[in-house]
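Following up on my earlier message about cobalt (II) ion. Here are the inputs again, as you asked, copied directly from the submission form:
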Amino acid sequence: MAIVIKTQEDIEKMRIAGRLAAEVLDYITPFVKPGVTTEELDKLCHDYMVNVQGTIPAPLNYAPDGGTPYPKSICTSINHVICHGIPDNKPLKKGDIVNLDITVIKDGYHGDTSRMFYVGEVSDFARRLCKVTYECMWKGIEKVKPGARLGDIGNVIQRHAEAAGYSVVQEFCGHGIGKKFHEEPQVLHYGQPGTGLELKAGMIFTIEPMINQGKRHLRMLADGWTVVTKDRSLSAQWEHTILVTETGYEILTTSDGTPPKPVFKH
Ligand code: MF3
Ligand code: CO
Ligand code: CO
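Thanks, got it. Here's what our run produced:
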């Protein structure tokens, strides 16, 4: 399937879905505390989506190419979990870092966004990883405009991560999104400038770098979903859904609680 250039009507609906996904993160933020289980966070988000927003949690029973269906409504990736952590009955503890990844479907359209959360007080090195990963996402976003190439996005993310001494996960990437959860193109978070697909107004895709404190290599757990760092080093991720506009970009997954754009020193 080719890349979908969204119509004005698609874009309107993607704005709504994007905002709703971000609002689930706003809603759940005060609950992310030591002692809460990720299953409790999942239930709260599920009920908020279904009963308050009238959205469908896209992860629930999601089974790309016939794999094990995903059993929960959100992804909760703690510490050395890179992505797709499955909510369970283990309480979060002080010092953990956790990514909450929310994808909603509203009126047939998907909004996909994730943020990092600190559980109580966390170490300086964990904080630095989360901050640099946030900057990586933003450096990627700022490359988005018609005529730019996907390699420009990947390259700026990779350079910023590696300059900080970190590594970029290569096996998972950003993706086109719309009526389908995962569409073309694949948005790699590494690469060479001036290479890859040329961006055009009306494309919508996610930028969602996964950055490891140690080596980039990963391992998949037996549950068929949870992805962890092979060296058990910490991993962080942030995600926005982005529209390519005539002049640049529009972030579709914003809400009142979206953290501000970082201030770059270089
Ligand atoms: N939200 C993830 C992404 O950013 C995908 C999660 S698939 C799931 O692409 F089934 F684990 F939810
Ligand atoms: Co995504
Ligand atoms: Co996501």
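One observation from looking it over: The mean pLDDT is 98. Hope that helps, and feel free to reply on this thread.
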